[in-house]
Design brief:
The complex is a heterodimer. Chain A is α/β, with parallel strands linked by helices. Chain A is built from ten helices and 15 strands. In chain A, the strands form three sheets. A six-stranded antiparallel beta sheet of chain A has the order 2-1-4-5-6-7, with helices on one face. In chain A, strands 8-12-13-3-14-15 form a six-stranded mixed beta sheet, sandwiched between helices. Chain A has a three-stranded antiparallel beta sheet with strand order 9-10-11. In chain B, helix 5 links the parallel strand 3 and strand 4. The chains are: A alpha/beta, B alpha/beta.
């Protein structure tokens, strides 16, 4: 799959973007703050229906305007799909596919797979467990619709259960009947989420390990371990055992909202014992593993967005990465960098590529 | 919004409290009322007040009624062994309009949603248990919206009445009559397939 062209109006710092892309390397160069990342975010938005930065949609509108729109055409197996995303100030956003609006926005997510590699990825190593769950969920949601619906339902049920625990504390009653109702309603939802995460972790690991060894050229074994209270206890028992604690803390202390992914190298925690180089390699391997996983499940190569990668890898690893990306498994790629010369040297001499110069939110195609 | 009159502002603020009415709409309503003659306004005020002073909730089913017992509960021709459990008056009116139901109702007065501060004790659940305990009820039909709050409410009641010999059923969920299949959402369509029924003409 690839993005053929994109027209954006009033998206973040650019008033107008009108770009035609090539099927392999599309390179955006320019100074910091010129708006390179915003172009990647516009592509991400079109593919996923939301910003990569978890920003509120109204905040993405260019200063002083009252709407933004992004229009673009994805080519999937030779068929062009025109996607239009429009956010007007104070209105609900609308996403249309070939001029027909989606009834539910979640129906858009996952149809046009995309993987972003950006400086913010460091959060996966240093951030809280929620960052890692969100990353894992973003992948599984793209390949399993039931999973996304289950997550939404889980979130709502959990909020109701917690509200009931608060209400019980307030009214000083230990009448568990309604909490038990929520327990039983949560059970099948939690099972589905847990099973899907177990399956994902298992399927994902070999893809990830392959890329780790390719980038690092070393024999050490990295691991991504899915941790969940449900791995070795039944949900029902967990809830039973923790009721007193739930009652005291007025919230639910067990469930898949406590899950995490543990990153290890040779059995040691990456966050504590990994060198900076190991951590970076780990992150790239995670993202490229995500790429391969989605390629296998979606049957079409996702679009790869690389934000500022040259700054973050040493020359040797960078050369290794670029070598990888020229292989056929990888389809269309969008790269940003501050230095055009560096990027030119890194990319293969011959081959499908195009350079764009970015300045103050304006983009010029270079000949 | 700046008002030239305090009286006007008070009236607008009162109307703006109504569901679905914003300040602009409230102002439009109030300006319209200003043009009415006094007797009409008297009647509007009086009918509003009568809502509190004269309306009652039926002692049996808790539907809104002019009498202690509502017309449906007072009707000896209606089957008292079947109770249709609904959220509020609107559901009673909708089901009555179908002419398909000859049993009686039980109006809960809302759905369980702790997030909104509504627990089972804030609804007419105990009174429903009472009616079942009295022994005449043989079947409960849940006619409750298939939302999470609706499902929670049905689930809770079903747990509470487990010890009694009553049949519990729920209205069918699926494709609406006269609509085209391709427009049904996946969840509804999937559920309709899973819960398919024997074909009959």
């Amino acid at each position: 799959m690839h993005l053929s062209w994109l027209i954006a109006e009033n998206f973040k710092n650019s008033e107008k973007l009108d770009l035609k892309f090539v099927n392999k390397f599309n390179c955006f160069t320019g100074k910091n703050g010129a708006g390179k990342t915003n172009i990647l975010d516009a592509i991400y938005y079109l593919a996923c229906g939301k910003s990569w930065f978890n920003a509120q949609d109204s905040q993405l509108i260019h200063n002083g305007e009252n709407y933004f729109s992004i229009l673009g055409s994805f080519n999937k197996d030779g068929k062009e799909d025109e996607i239009r995303a429009v956010q007007m100030q104070g209105r609900r956003k609308v996403i249309k596919r070939n001029d027909v609006a989606y009834e539910r926005l979640i129906d858009h997510y996952g149809n046009y797979p995309v993987v972003m590699i950006a400086p913010g990825d460091l959060e996966l190593v240093y951030g809280i467990s929620e960052d890692r769950r969100r990353w894992m969920d973003s992948i599984i949601c793209a390949v399993e619709k039931d999973y996304m619906l289950a997550l939404i339902k889980y979130e709502k049920l959990l909020q109701q259960r917690n509200a009931q625990l608060k209400k019980m504390a307030l009214e000083n009653t230990k009448n568990k009947k309604l909490v038990e109702v929520y327990n039983e309603m949560l059970e099948p939802v939690v099972q589905l989420i847990h099973q899907q995460r177990v399956a994902f972790a298992k399927e994902f690991l070999p893809y990830f390990q392959k890329y780790y060894s390719l980038i690092s050229n070393r024999t050490e074994t990295p691991e991504v371990e899915y941790q969940s209270q449900l791995n070795d206890a039944a949900y029902e028992d967990l809830l039973q055992r923790n009721f007193e604690q739930d009652f005291a803390t007025q919230r639910t202390n067990v469930g898949t909202h406590k899950d995490d992914l543990e990153f290890k190298i040779q059995g040691q925690a990456l966050k504590k014992f990994g060198s900076q180089g190991q951590q970076k390699t780990f992150l790239f391997a995670l993202k490229l593993g995500q790429y391969s996983f989605m390629l296998a499940r979606k049957g079409t190569p996702p679009i790869l967005l690389l934000d500022d990668v040259c700054e973050r890898l040493d020359d040797e690893r960078l050369a290794q990465l670029m070598e990888l990306l020229t292989q056929e498994e990888f389809g269309q790629i969008f790269i940003t960098d501050t230095s055009k010369e560096r990027l030119k040297k890194l990319l293969p001499k011959n081959g499908d590529k195009k350079f764009y110069h970015v300045q103050n939110g304006m983009v010029k195609e270079e000949k | 919004m700046e008002f030239p009159s305090k009286v006007l502002e008070d009236a607008v603020n009162q109307y703006a409290k109504l569901p679905g009415v914003g300040k602009r709409t409230a102002l439009r309503l109030v300006l319209h009322l200003l043009k009415q003659d006094e007797p009409q306004l008297q009647e509007l005020a009086a009918s509003t007040l009568r809502l509190k002073s004269h309306l009652k909730f039926c002692k049996e089913c808790f539907n809104i009624s002019d009498d202690v017992i509502c017309e449906i509960c007072a009707d000896a021709g209606r089957d008292e062994t079947i109770l249709c459990v609904v959220e509020d008056l609107r559901d009673v009116m909708a089901i009555e309009n179908t002419n398909y139901f000859n049993g009686r109702y039980h109006v809960l007065g809302g759905l369980v949603s702790p997030l909104d501060g509504i627990g089972p004790d804030d609804l007419e659940v105990e009174s429903l248990i009472q009616r079942i305990e009295n022994g005449k009820v043989k079947e409960l039909i849940f006619a409750i919206s298939p939302t999470m709050e609706g499902d929670t409410t049905s689930f809770y009641i079903s747990k509470r009445v487990k010890e009694f010999p009553v049949v519990i059923s729920t209205i069918a969920r699926g494709i609406s009559i006269g609509s085209e299949l391709e427009y049904a959402d996946e969840v509804t369509l999937g559920r309709s397939l899973a819960d398919r029924i024997p074909f009959k003409i």
